[in-house]
Design brief:
alpha+beta; 3-stranded antiparallel β-sheet; Jelly Rolls; homotrimer; 34% strand; elongated
C-alpha cells in the first residue's frame, strides 16, 4: 500500500502513525512485521516521540548543526539539495515494526514520522507493507 | 517475545546478542528474519563489534561531540533529555538480522547492542520477533 | 544468498542495486521483503541516489567532518579504525526493501549502496535475503 503525505516546510517531521496503523488494521494480519519506507532520496522515516512536537524540531536543528546546508557539497552543483541526501542516508528511508494483536507494537512514547528534508512537497509517497508472521 | 535489559549508566552500549540468540533458538525457526526493537524513544539498537567494548564508548563520545547535551534543545524545557531523543532517532530503534540454520547470520565481528541514551533504567523492554522465511 | 563486493578506496559508496535486483529476480518471489546486510562492522548499507555519484562522496565528507578520524578514539589503540565502527553503527548494517511484482520497490532516485569505511577490501560479504509475503 502506498500512502501519500504532503509537507509544508523545507524541513519538518510529520507524524504518520495513524495512517500506518490504518493500513495494518485493514490488512487483517494479526501478527507479523510492518515495513514503512519513504520512496524518496531526500526524506526519511524515523520512530520516536511526537507527543512533544519539539523533538522533531530539535532533530532537524541538530542535523543542520552537524551537517550544514551548502557547505561546499559537490551535489549542490547539480541539484541544490545535497544536505537532504546526506541526512536522509544517515536517518535511513525505512523502519520495520512488529505487528501484534493486529496493531503496531510500539513503546508508549514511540510514533512513526516522515522526515521531510527538501520540502515543501505536495506528494511524498510512503510504502506501508504488512507481512504475516509464523 | 519481550526481553528485559537493565542499564547502569547515563549512556552505554549493552551487548544483548546472547539473549537475542536464545529467542531465535527457542523459536525453532530455521530460516527467516529476526527483528530486534527497543520499545523506547531514548534508546536504540545497533549491530557492531563488542569484542572491544571501547567501540561502544567511542560511539557515545562521538555522538556527544556531534550533538551536545543541553545545547538549547526545545524539548529540554519539557523533559531534560532531548539529546537522547535526537540520538535515538539517528541510530534507529531496530535492526533486522537474517536467521539461517536456526541462528543469527552475523559477521565475525558483529553483535547486537542496546544503546542506552537516558539511563540508568532498570527495565528497558526490547522486542525480539522471529519470522519464518520461504 | 551472499554476494561479494570489492572496494578500492579507503572510503567509498558502491552501488549494488543491480546485484540485489538479480537475487530478487532469481528468488522467483513476487511479493515480500528483501533484506540486505553488510556482514562487517566497518561497512554499512544505505538506500539513496547514485545517479550523481557525488552524493556518496558528499556523505563520506559529511561523516568525516562530524566524526573525525583518529580524534582520540579508544579503539584506535587496538585496531586503527574506530571511526569506521562509529560511522557504520550510525548508518546501520542493513536496509529492508519491499518486493513487488518480483522486483525491488524503490523510488525513482533510490538505489542500494554498500558504504566502505575501512577499505580497500577485496571481499566484502553482503547477505541478500528475500522473504515471501502473504
Amino acid at each position: 500500500m502506498i500512502i501519500r503525505v504532503s509537507s509544508h516546510r523545507t524541513k519538518e517531521c510529520i507524524d504518520i502513525t495513524h495512517q500506518v496503523r490504518d493500513v495494518v488494521r485493514e490488512s487483517g494480519i494479526d501478527r507479523g512485521l510492518c515495513h514503512v519506507m519513504a520512496l524518496h532520496a531526500t526524506a526519511a522515516i524515523i520512530v520516536n516521540e511526537n507527543d512533544d512536537p519539539n523533538i522533531g524540531v530539535d532533530l532537524i536543528t541538530a542535523l543542520d548543526a552537524a551537517i550544514p546546508d551548502h557547505a561546499g557539497w559537490l551535489h549542490d552543483r547539480v541539484d541544490n539539495n545535497a544536505q537532504a541526501h546526506i541526512k536522509a542516508s544517515i536517518l535511513g528511508p525505512s523502519e520495520t515494526i512488529v505487528v501484534a494483536d493486529g496493531d503496531l507494537l510500539l513503546g508508549t512514547w514511540q510514533g512513526v514520522m516522515l522526515v521531510e528534508l527538501d520540502g515543501p512537497r505536495a506528494d511524498r509517497r510512503v510504502s506501508v507493507e504488512v507481512i504475516e508472521g509464523s
